[in-house]
Amino acid sequence: MQLIKFIFSTTFILWLVLSAISSFARVSAVNQIEVDTIYTEVDVIPRFAGGAKAWSNFLNRNLNIRNIQQSIDEDTYISFGLVQQANLEFTVCEDGKVCDIEVLNADKISPEFEEEVMRVMKRSPRWKPALRDGQPVKTRFRQPVIVNLKER
C-alpha cells in the first residue's frame, strides 16, 4: 500500500511540474518579442532619459546655432525663414540606442539645419525604450526640433 501511495504521489508531483512547465512555455510563446521587429503598437512609448526638460537641455547644449547662422546666406533665410522645424523620425532600439534617423521635411528646412540636427541626433544618449508586455522593444518615434536663427 505504501508503494502505491509513493508511486501515486510521485506521479502526481511529476504531473504538476510538467503542467507548470507546459503552461510557462505557452505563456512565453504568446509574449515572445521578436528581436528584429519594429513594433508600431506599444504599451509605453520611448522617452528621453530625464524627460522633456533633459531633452531640451541636450539640444541646447549640442545644437550649434551659431554655425548654422554663419553658414547660411540671405537666400536661405528667405527660403526657409528664421524659425525652422525639423520633423525627425528615428528608431529607438530595445537597448535605447537611437538609429535610422530621418528628417521627414528636409525640403522645408535649410540644408545647414538638416545637417546639424542629424549630427546632434547621432550623438544622442540612449533613450528609455518602448515597452510591450513589459519587455523593451524596437519602435519608430517622431520628434520635432525647432530652432530660432535670430541673432542672440
Question: Care to describe what's here?
Answer:
The protein is an alpha+beta fold. It is built from five helices and seven strands; from the N terminus they run H-E-E-H-H-H-E-E-H-E-E-E. The protein has helices spanning 2-30, 51-62, 65-71, 74-80, 111-122; strands at 38-39, 47-48, 83-92, 98-103, 127-128, 130-132, 135-148. The strands form two sheets. Strands 1, 3, 4, 6 and 7 form a five-stranded mixed beta sheet that branches. The chain has a two-stranded antiparallel ribbon with strand order 2-5. A hairpin with a 5-residue loop joins strand 3 and strand 4. The N and C termini lie far apart (94 Å). Residues 1-30 have low confidence and may be disordered.
Q: Please identify the structural class as seen in this structure.
A: alpha+beta
- What string, H for helix and E for strand, traces the elements in order? HEEHHHEEHEEE
Report the biggest beta sheet as strand number plus sense, adding barrel if it closes.
5 strands, mixed
- Overall morphology: elongated
Could you name the ranges where pLDDT drops below 50 across 5 or more consecutive residues? 1-30
Radius of gyration: 26 Å
The overall average pLDDT, rounded, is 83
Helix content: 40-55%
Beta-strand residue fraction: 25-35%
Number of helical elements:
5
Give the tally of β-strands.
Answer: 7
InterPro entries: TonB_C
Pfam families: TonB_C
Protein name: Energy transducer TonB
Domain TonB C-terminal: 87-145
